[in-house]
């Protein structure tokens, strides 16, 4: 019978060769024979992490730490498993424990830095990532994470240097290229940024082509049929569907695959011949070319001073607009003097996407608690309307019950309903979520709260948006600090409501393009 040492040797040989099943069987046998074998629990946890079973990895490596809390390998790998599971606070604590025991613990400074960055603590992350890069200047992941953190901190020259260094280490790896693309786009350098952004398909391992048809890259398209399709979020679809009419203007027949929530609304977009979702895409006509929506700016050769920004380019169904006016008692424009309060829509939270730790962390940075937005409801001269969906809507239950906030969202079935409600609003105040795109695309004035590490599409150092002429940006000055943003919003909302007795019409006139 093999000794435990011999069993470990065989298992580790399997593990290092990538034979995870074989390794796991042996680690499990060792652990079953002796539950105090911390190394077996630790290594079995690493296998679970490599398989993407992060909760299982945390439990197993956590058991190893419980048996030997001074082992810095155990602590570091538990931190890594917690980070992969999106449990950043706990990960940070375990990395810190490992470093307290062994200040130069291998790989821990870089992991601590990336966990801090994922938790939105960019200022704290950069020094740790710099320390990790100094310890190992040729470590690809460290340089990549350092570049991303520096970019999110607004230190673009340093970020580009780090990302270029990562790219030089792994010239065929698409990740640093995609991050460089985001950096260039955030700076408005569209020619280079959009070209680099096309490498995102290498990163996902997918192809932009559909049904073997070539991807349209800007060539003459008159008389041909093109299939456009969404690839990312609802807001992205709403933003980039603006290019569909431009294709029709060039003589193309345009087919479009969209998310089910957008199908009814986007039927209003000029130039789209047929709409479908992926469930019924097989019924679409034959097509000659295809293009994902987010590749259209590249195919059109868009530059920051030539963004197609005419609004509205989406129109909610008129019968639905009228039905919601009746439903909400908004059929009358005002009192006997023709006056009414400013109708303001509010959204304070995005989709939390808890299944994806990276997206969930980003949502926590872009969303605000309703309690921070609630004081705006008390601004004299406004009528507050919730456009919030999901669990976050529950945060406003008391305000709705008190009559301080109207919440029509229980009757909403898709974005056509939301757009029909928004069509009656004079202003929408929202975090960076799909409603910001929706309201701006139908031409409503939008005040958008933007986190400090803003999405590239909002650029840097601007309070307007070349994409949307009716949008105003309210940016965080420092990560996580919404206080000054809410103060500016409160001041500006009060001024807008008081500007004119018929303040709704005054604001609408100001925000109207042209």
From TrEMBL:
Which superkingdom? Answer: Bacteria
Q: What is this protein called?
A: Tetratricopeptide repeat protein
Ranges in a coiled coil:
none
A single Pfam family, by name? TPR_16
The protein's UniProt keywords, in alphabetical order, are: Repeat, TPR repeat
Intervals holding TPR repeats: 72-105, 140-173
List the InterPro entries hit by this protein, alphabetically: Glyco_trans_9, TMTC_O-mannosyl-trnsfr, TPR-like_helical_dom_sf, TPR_2, TPR_rpt
């Amino acid at each position: 019978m093999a000794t435990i040492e011999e069993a470990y040797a065989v298992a580790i040989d399997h593990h290092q060769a990538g034979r995870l099943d074989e390794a796991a069987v042996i680690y499990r046998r060792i652990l079953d024979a002796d539950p105090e074998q911390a190394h077996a629990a630790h290594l079995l946890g690493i296998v679970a992490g490599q398989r993407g079973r992060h909760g299982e990895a945390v439990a197993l490596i956590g058991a190893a730490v419980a048996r030997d809390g001074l082992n810095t390998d155990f602590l570091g790998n538990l931190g890594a498993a917690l980070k992969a599971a999106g449990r950043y606070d706990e990960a940070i604590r375990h990395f810190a424990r490992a470093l307290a025991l062994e200040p130069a613990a291998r790989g821990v400074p870089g992991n601590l830095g990336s966990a801090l960055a994922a938790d939105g603590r960019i200022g704290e992350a950069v020094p740790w990532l710099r320390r990790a890069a100094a310890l190992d200047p040729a470590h690809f992941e460290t340089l990549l994470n350092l570049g991303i953190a520096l970019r999110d901190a607004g230190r673009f020259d340093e970020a580009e240097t780090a990302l270029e260094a990562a790219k030089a280490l792994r010239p065929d790896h698409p990740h640093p290229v995609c991050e460089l693309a985001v950096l260039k786009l955030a700076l408005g350098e569209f020619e280079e940024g959009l070209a680099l952004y096309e490498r995102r398909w290498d990163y996902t391992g997918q192809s932009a082509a559909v049904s073997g048809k070539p991807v349209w890259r800007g060539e003459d398209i008159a008389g041909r049929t093109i299939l456009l399709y969404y690839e990312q979020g609802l807001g992205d679809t709403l933003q980039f569907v603006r290019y569909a009419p431009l294709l029709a203007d060039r003589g193309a027949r345009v087919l479009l695959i969209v998310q089910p929530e957008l199908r009814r609304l986007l039927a209003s977009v000029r130039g789209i011949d047929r709409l479908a979702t992926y469930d019924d895409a097989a019924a679409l006509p034959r097509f000659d070319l295809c293009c994902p929506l987010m590749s259209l700016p590249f195919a059109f050769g868009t530059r920051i001073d030539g963004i197609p920004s005419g609004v509205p380019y989406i129109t909610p169904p008129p019968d639905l607009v009228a039905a919601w006016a009746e439903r909400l008692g908004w059929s009358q424009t005002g009192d006997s003097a023709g006056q009414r309060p400013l109708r303001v829509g509010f959204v304070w939270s995005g989709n939390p996407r808890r299944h994806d730790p990276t997206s969930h962390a980003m949502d926590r940075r872009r969303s605000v608690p309703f309690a921070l937005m609630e004081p705006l409801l008390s601004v004299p001269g406004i009528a507050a309307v919730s456009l919030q969906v999901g669990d976050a809507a529950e945060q406003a239950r008391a305000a709705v019950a008190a009559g301080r906030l109207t919440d029509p969202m229980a009757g909403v079935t898709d974005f056509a309903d939301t757009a029909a409600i928004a069509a009656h609003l004079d202003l929408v105040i929202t975090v960076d979520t799909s409603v910001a795109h929706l309201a701006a695309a139908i031409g409503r004035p939008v005040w958008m709260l933007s986190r400090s590490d803003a999405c590239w599409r909002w650029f840097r150092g601007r309070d307007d948006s070349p994409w949307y002429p009716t949008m105003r940006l309210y940016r965080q000055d420092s990560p996580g600090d919404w206080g000054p943003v809410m103060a500016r919003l409160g001041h500006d909302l009060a001024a807008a409501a008081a500007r004119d007795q018929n303040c709704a019409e005054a604001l609408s006139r100001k925000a109207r393009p042209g």
